[in-house]
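Ticket #4471: structure output looks truncated?

Reporter: J.K.
Steps to reproduce: submitted the chain below (294 residues) through the standard prediction queue, then opened the result file.
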Amino acid sequence: MLQLSGVTKSYGGRPALDGVSFDVLPGRLTGFVGGNGAGKTTTMRIVLGVLAKDGGTVTLDGAEVTASDRRRFGYMPEERGLYPKMKILEHIVYLARLHGFSKSDATSRAKALLEKLGLGERLGDNVETLSLGNQQRAQIAAALVHDPEVLILDEPFSGLDPLAVDVVAGVLQERAAAGAAVLFSSHQLDVVERLCDDLVIIAGGTIRAAGARDALRAQHSHRRFELVSAGDASWLHAEPGVEVVDSDTGYAVFDADSDATAQRVLRRAVEQGDVASFAPQHPTLAQIFKEVIR
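Returned output as attached by the reporter:
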């Protein structure tokens, strides 16, 4: 387990990170979200040893992370860092060789990974000839080719079309299923919500929420319900303890002041006509994000 505890960082006396603490668990995908300047990239760079922290600890399985540990990390920066004049396969093989793999092992690993990422027909092309989306895929291959135990990805879905997002997401899920601890940042909250097991929300250099995705959604639920029925739902507006958020003929989303109120609404809806569905509505990641950073 990768664990950050009380990490601080300042630039010229101005705090960039203030007591940042969260865990990245093996076998799970952790989404790291926050606005521009929130502290995501600074946090990742400290984990990787690119930046020195002012205080706090970064540990792997309970021990302070060392340079040797970081050889087992994979990192994809937001800025593209591949050599533009190198051929794609040659580049990824070179990076695998730097991690100690033989030429034959490095080549087979690189080929398999690039094909999985949809670049099988571009192996002999120079990096600079690729579209930005395909360069992003190659950058991901560079981070993954040595089978890292910890994977740190800064905006891995940037510039990818929906099909490419699915391809990359599938590869990351495979790595997590194999036991890797995966931390990735993204501004695409819908992708994060769909993909991640755990969430970390940062704003102004402080962690505003962290934990399992479903637990956070339950924690930030506010007794909001969706009712779909054959009857007219306009009566809900006059129901005590109910605030209607959205409504149409036979459809309503409402907040209830108690579980008892919600059950009373359900009973009345059944009396009014056939109820097609009645279920709690959990907030989206975007809604949780807006709530916790206020």
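Triage note (M.O.): checked the attachment and the full token line is present. The CA atoms of residues 16 and 196 lie 25 Å apart.
Status: closed, working as intended.
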